Amino acid sequence: SSTWSPGHSTQRTPSQTLTKNGVCVNCSCDLKRAKNAALSLLPFIGWMRIYQLKEWLLSDIVSGVSTGLVAVLQGLAYSLLASLPPWYGLFTAFFPVIVYFFLGTSRHISVGAFPVLSLMVGAVVTRLVPDEGPPVNITGFEGLTSDEQRVMVAASVTFLMGIMQLTMGLLQVGFIVMYLSDTLVSGFTTAAAVHILVSQLKFVLGLVVPGLSGPLSIVYTLEKIFVQIEKTNVCDLVTSILIMVVVFIVKEINDRYKAKLPVPIPIEVIMTVIACGVSYAFNFRVNYKVDVVGRIPVGYESPMGPNMQIFGQTAVEAFPMAIVGFAVAFSVAKVYSVKHDYIIDGNQELIAFGASNIIGAAFKSFAASTALSRSAVQESTGGKTQIAGLLSALIVMVVTLAIGFLLEPLPKSVLGAVVIVNLKGMLMQIREVPYLWRRDRPDCVVWVVTCLASILLGLDLGLAVGLGIELLTVVFRAQFPRCSVLANITGTDIYKDRKDYMSIYEPEGVKIFRIPSPIFFANIDFFRGKLVGFNPLRVLRKRNKALRMIRKLLKKGELQMTSKGLLLISSGPIEESEDESNMEELDQPTDFKDLPVQVNWNSELPANIHVPRVDVHSLILDFSAVSFLDISALKGLKAALKELIRVEVEVYIVASYILKKLHSCMFFDDEVKSSMFFLTLHDAMLHILEKHPVNSENTKVCEKGPIKSICHCLF
């Protein structure tokens, strides 16, 4: 028993006890919670515990070596897209891979340079440190060479991009990638492929073209290329064409015979080795003035911190880079997770890529994501886990520390040719346009506008324009959805769009209207205009005006009641009253209490009184797909229902999700009653047919058990 004294209470209330228990449960730490936290933060622990050494290790080794060789080549090539010296691509193929090994949830993607991100980094680099003219005035540039300034810009924007990704991961907002539809990403990456293609032409042709950024930069770049097209280095051009033809043919062979080949033929690596040997043997750099990779420093450079002033200059570009990098990597990871039956966590992926880019940027690498072709190599060569990724990083480390000098004679035109060949998949996405035009024109508009805007305005502005157009299409679809009129499929209790079927049954005077989307403030007026094909408020006002006229004529004796109804006995002209002094009365239900007869509004009226006919006596609203209504929609819907009821149209609603909300919002009253709700369309139709029997040869009465229902079938 508890004791009580004034001002003191030793007995806890139930709410205090529950609150204390909840805090204790949520804030306590035990072995299980610690284990789950470790597995969540370090996902590699989970798959390392089930690692099948004998079955998986050899496959991971083969995959790691193959992926590592491709990563070296792509790292060198994609550095050119970022407007950086080639060897910094080797850093991007090493540091982010190591970090992702511990933090990432995908077992198959290959982390490193991604051409679209590299191009976006290059746009920032050339804006702050242009090829022609002085760099932007930034503290920290003093005493640095042009290449060192560019590395600082690339590392700083990558660091900022990593911070954004890490923050989004910690805030659990991985869902943001859902706003980038497949159509938008397809149009954006196609435009990026066009930018990449144009940016590599100067290497393929052996021309000196300054890097440009900003709106219409692609046009200006093409102009500078064609102005000096006669200066094309024939050796570079021939080498590039030869590399592209051979690589393209072998890649097609790999695709066609991938089921028979144990591993894809690493043709890019093979052609790179051959090109290095030929360039060294014939001294391309001296004899043919070919631009080569040049000196590759041995080892890694000391880490550095980001420049805060560059943060302010590049924040606008860093955010779309963070989104695009994560969106591409997550979509690729999702494909492989479904194929190999394991789960990936979008928020943990954001944390993994954020940490990878932060640590990588500290060691002077640039933005990392995943390259589609490199991930395909890692998966298709038998990679089972990120052990393959770790081994690929070791291959890159060997090149960086020991044998990088062997790549010094490699012509940059070879790297450009390899980049262009790998654009095939992205460029071929243009084939989606005819399909989208036939199937979904708003999506086609999103694709085309995103692609054109990204090509002409630049990738950052193009992505913003594409996202804006995509959101506009969402608003357009929600505000103007495709409503439909349903009809009964003959001989069934199924109701479908009357436009899609021929053998249907529609009782006279009954309309079934289907609303396929939520109803809210932006589309309630659209729905009200579509419901019955006429304005019920206008009809109601016309009827009340007609009643005023009838009462006036009866009072004057110019209208008399006969066996045939109301009869006009005056032959003079009848002027319709235009008194609009009391509009509220015209909006009220028609009142026949002081008239000797109830007016049939669909019959011919005396005294040339004209009132619009209403051929619908029952309206069924199919709200089964309506997930919510806001307050504005509730008010608009209630007003519409009252207008219909006042013109003698019976309204029935089929819904389940919204009924509770309607009750809580005091939706029902003396006119709008809850009895108008039914669970199914067929129940509502049977109720209508009982109230308004249809006498026709095509109607028969069926009896099932104790409940009688009227079933209508066409024979």
From TrEMBL:
<feature type="domain" description="STAS">
    <location>
        <begin position="500"/>
        <end position="688"/>
    </location>
</feature>
<feature type="transmembrane region" description="Helical">
    <location>
        <begin position="178"/>
        <end position="197"/>
    </location>
</feature>
<feature type="transmembrane region" description="Helical">
    <location>
        <begin position="203"/>
        <end position="222"/>
    </location>
</feature>
<feature type="transmembrane region" description="Helical">
    <location>
        <begin position="111"/>
        <end position="130"/>
    </location>
</feature>
<dbReference type="InterPro" id="IPR001902">
    <property type="entry name" value="SLC26A/SulP_fam"/>
</dbReference>
<feature type="transmembrane region" description="Helical">
    <location>
        <begin position="387"/>
        <end position="407"/>
    </location>
</feature>
<dbReference type="Pfam" id="PF00916">
    <property type="entry name" value="Sulfate_transp"/>
</dbReference>
<keyword id="KW-0812">Transmembrane</keyword>
<dbReference type="InterPro" id="IPR002645">
    <property type="entry name" value="STAS_dom"/>
</dbReference>
<protein>
    <recommendedName>
        <fullName>STAS domain-containing protein</fullName>
    </recommendedName>
</protein>
<feature type="transmembrane region" description="Helical">
    <location>
        <begin position="234"/>
        <end position="251"/>
    </location>
</feature>
<feature type="transmembrane region" description="Helical">
    <location>
        <begin position="445"/>
        <end position="469"/>
    </location>
</feature>
<keyword id="KW-0472">Membrane</keyword>
<dbReference type="InterPro" id="IPR011547">
    <property type="entry name" value="SLC26A/SulP_dom"/>
</dbReference>
<feature type="transmembrane region" description="Helical">
    <location>
        <begin position="350"/>
        <end position="367"/>
    </location>
</feature>
<keyword id="KW-1133">Transmembrane helix</keyword>
<dbReference type="Pfam" id="PF01740">
    <property type="entry name" value="STAS"/>
</dbReference>
<feature type="transmembrane region" description="Helical">
    <location>
        <begin position="263"/>
        <end position="282"/>
    </location>
</feature>
<dbReference type="GO" id="GO:0016020">
    <property type="term" value="C:membrane"/>
</dbReference>
<feature type="transmembrane region" description="Helical">
    <location>
        <begin position="318"/>
        <end position="338"/>
    </location>
</feature>
<feature type="transmembrane region" description="Helical">
    <location>
        <begin position="57"/>
        <end position="81"/>
    </location>
</feature>
<feature type="transmembrane region" description="Helical">
    <location>
        <begin position="87"/>
        <end position="104"/>
    </location>
</feature>
<dbReference type="GO" id="GO:0055085">
    <property type="term" value="P:transmembrane transport"/>
</dbReference>
<dbReference type="InterPro" id="IPR036513">
    <property type="entry name" value="STAS_dom_sf"/>
</dbReference>
